[in-house]
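Reviewer 2 asked us to include a model.

Predict the structure of this chain.
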Amino acid sequence: MAGIYPTSLAAAFPEKSRIDQAKADLEKAGVKYVFSCWIDILGSPKTKPVPLSELERLCIGKGPQFAVHSVAMFPELGPADPDQIPIPDLDAIFVCPWNPEFAIVFADLYYEDAPYDVCPRMALKRTVQEAEVAGYAFYAGMEPEFIVLRYDDKGQPVKAIDDDPEAGEGFRPKRQAFGYDVEYSLDSMPFLSDVIEYLNGMGWGLKNVVCEGAYSQFEVDFDYSTVLGMADRFTFLRILLKEIAKRHGLFVTYMPKPAQGDWRSGAHINWSVQSTANPGANLFKDEASGDWSDTARWAAAGALKHGVALTAVNCPTVNSYKGLIGRAREFEGGTVTWAPTHITYGVNNRSAMIRFPQARFAIENRAVDMCVNPYLGLAMTCAASLEGIREKLDPGPPLAKSLYELTAAERDELQVKPLPRNLDQAITGFAADPLAKHVFGDTMHRLYTLHKQDEWDRFHETITDWEKREYLRFF
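Predicted model (structure tokens):
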């Protein structure tokens, strides 16, 4: 058995009977075209569509191949090197509910008969296999939030669910916060009803679709799954939401904080672990006491130990760090953001990076946003947790106080470290973290560091509108 992480190209090929069954199922569903998608270093799916008749050739490495520039912005290979080969994972097929003639299947990348070392999906599979060897299976849920926009008559992006005049065009009175509001929920239903219908049809166990804090911001809640299954679902969801929005003349942004007054769009990771010897039992719950277990505390400690590197992956853009603040000026719905600000944990403490919720035995990492590459984010989460469990790391006592109120002296006394204040601090910590290098592999770790350092440098060199307003005539 090759396991979840086949180490050679031939070992990754599905059995012919499995291919035939998948093809028959897709034909029955009305599928005509297959989008075999590989994942780039930022978490975006790439593809070359083929007719369904080509499924078998895809599965044995004879379908379309591609050049490395479609995976990394700073590729380590050049135009004279062999192409990469995507092998579809037939356990990751999604028939597109907005057009059932299309099916998306997520693929793993091979290069010269071995797993390609810049394949995020394979990095997660490798981590899952390491956990399995240690006797553990990780599960996760995510809480995706996003903002729906439209273009106005002047071609400017504006909130889709907002019928008040734009700034400077009329009287704009104070309004209730958008979150949970019945009127705004009703106004959103033409879009949300399609989201609900499609996700219900996917069989993901949709719980609800929520109007969130920022105007025209929503959250989708659905069941947890294996970490690989959740990464695939999250990636497919980002595709699905954009397609639904287009059908309403709208578009979706996953930018964490598009405007000063917006609540950030998070994508909190909630994870748990089971023993492979006793599947079904959540090891984060102490059955005797009914409380959180030592295993949960050890896993949390592992995440906290690698908190900076985790944040560099889970909050991967310059804009991500505009949302990791406790209070915000010009904020819709008050001044408190409810965002995590420090690398610590607490029981139901939403100001901490790591939260032990009161209603479920799944640890929540709140320092995650919608730009995360879910494969790499979940791989780092599993690896950090596994290290904490193996070494029985102590996270210390949970912090019950709001971290927004802590003085510098209190932070020093409690030895609480802040989350990175910007991408530069985060990627510096990521570059130095040995666990990050292990999870990513040397090549992808170097390329990710290079790309993110370049992103920060380009931002840091840019003269912003804020600087012009602040300094142009001031001095």
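The domain at 9-113 is CATH 3.10.20.70 (Ubiquitin-like (UB roll)). The chain has two domains: 9-113, 132-471. We have added this to the supplementary material.
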